Amino acid sequence: MTSAAAIRGRVLPPKRRTRVKGRSMCALCGVLGGTSEWSDSTTAPAAFAGRTQPQTRLRERQTRTRILNAVLKHHGVSVKDWSGNSYLLTSRTGRTAIVEAVGEIWAAAERIGGGPCDPLDERYLSTLGNHDH
Amino acid sequence: MANYSDLTPVNIITGFLGSGKTTLLQRLLRSRELSDVAVLVNEFGEVGLDHHLLQGVAESTLLLENGCVCCAVRGDLQKALRNLLSSRTRGDIPHFRRVVIETSGLADPAPIAYTLLSEAVLRHHFRLSSIITTVDAINGATQLDGFAEAVKQVSMADRLVVTKTDLAEEASTAALRAKLRDFNLSAQILHATDVRDDFHRLLTDDIYDSEGKFRDASQWSALEVHGKSSHEHTADVRSFAVIFDSPLDWTAFGVWVSMLLHRHGTDILRLKGLLNVEGVPTPVLVNGVQHIVHPPSHLERWPNADRRSRLIFIVRGLHRGPIERSLAVFNVLVNRPMALPA
After folding, report:
1. Model confidence at B228: pLDDT above 50
2. How far apart, in whole angstroms, are the C-alpha atoms of residue A66 and residue A60?
3. Which of B259, B295, B318 sits opposite A44 (nearest CB)?
4. Contacts of B119 (CB under 8 A, 6+ apart)
5. Alpha-carbon distance B208 to A91, whole Å?
6. How far is B212 from chain A (nearest CA, A)?
7. pTM, rounded to two decimals
8. Do B140 and B195 have their domain in common?
């Protein structure tokens, strides 16, 4: 995020994160880093310690956001990573919602978009499986 | 925040009325390895019989009020566990390394698991270790036919302990075991009389215990190839294994499970997985109870030469085919080019 110091041309140290009751918080901007999620591989580093390719939390969030966009495209909802700690959802009509966790996305997408988010729906799956749509 | 495996493990001992929960618990508590266990006993009805039977662990025993440890009194469980925690911190009670919750015979174990995994304070101090369900060899089959509570208790279990086998016909016990397997493909089924020296493992083995996780999870890899391992039942609760040949993308898997549980979590009683994750040489273990999934764990090595991912579902009213197809579609999404905003 842009701060007054950055505008004045000062070099800022990298964002520092401190732990507050299990949540990370940016020490510069004070934004809480969201709740930890089981699907975030950084919550269980030992389980992924032998990874052959390096992975960072940011890179994983980028990949997740890309997958979420593919999944929710059919609901008319786009997803952006917001400051690395939340997800910004926008519908085709401009309605928005901000959620912290992946688990909260689906209810929000149903609220601002259209139709239930059901990964077992056969019609949805056939559309999702077709790259051209 | 402590590692998940460092949190105080909590075991839930459940089972239908008269199925031998307290007898099992008494036997477990006699084990030297389980000398530092705090016990929360639920009392169902006006007479606190269970509590009186467990007076030997009185200092760490809290009697939950108001009957069942289910939705209506989840606050009591929350309060009881918080009290245990603060008493331990203050040194008012002997230090305990494990908590055992004995439910009432009609309790639904799901809200207890939910409380442990989601409550703001408790989830930083306790973790769900395993759900152990006792089943009476004489009356168990009838109870499963007649009571939804019994089906739920069996379906959610990590271990099923068949009790009173010495009083039952061998053939009827075998039929009961087959019935239990129908409901729960992944649970270890044992007879209360079988286990002797290492009885404490009934509680201590779980996928976060450094010594017990290999024993606990390696049995999942022995499940049959899909197509032969589907178990269905008239009560609409069934368990099946979804076996995946190609490695799974972890991020896509997380999105898929999250979406699946959002829509169908109420009908997914348990979800367990021994996964071959793309780019990770060791197997990753996942474990979920209805809407909640534990942080993943792992094994140091594969149990055998089979490197396929296995996902075990215990569900109500869902079928294997759509789940399998859905995961296959999601698993390749990561290779798509960046989607343009809708």
Report:
1. no
2. 10
3. B295
4. B78
5. 41
6. 16
7. 0.78
8. yes
